[in-house]
Write a structure and sequence with these properties.
single chain, about 120 residues, 2 helices, mainly alpha
């Protein structure tokens, strides 16, 4: 079973992917419409070609930025999870040290007959 935080992260990731995919689909549709107009020798070819090129370039740039940010977020999540594990381990060790100190002090008092 997934931890609630991981489940929330997966749902959020899925929603973001769907939103970005919708935006990319719209950009592709505009690009295809522009290419169709170019193929039909539309009278505004000199305006349409640069816009199609711009749509393609911007879509590629945004896609690359999203991939890089996703990698950074994955690394950050991994680091955060590792830090949490180390933190739990340190708490466990500290609790055991305290118990060991109490037990050793208690046994020392009982040996010398102070109690």
């Amino acid at each position: 079973m997934l931890h609630p935080i991981k489940l929330l992260q997966k749902v959020t990731s899925l929603i973001m992917c769907l939103l970005f995919q919708a935006a990319f689909d719209r950009a592709d549709t505009f690009g295809q419409q522009g290419n169709n107009l170019i193929d039909q020798n539309h009278y505004a070819l000199d305006c349409i070609k640069p816009k199609c090129s711009e749509i393609s370039t911007k879509t590629h740039e945004i896609s690359e930025k999203i991939k890089k940010r996703a990698m950074v977020l994955e690394r950050s999540l991994d680091l955060q999870q590792r830090i949490e594990k180390v933190s739990c381990f340190i708490k466990f060790i500290l609790a055991n040290i305290i118990i060991w100190l109490i037990e050793s002090t208690w046994s020392g008092y009982t040996r010398i007959g102070m109690l």
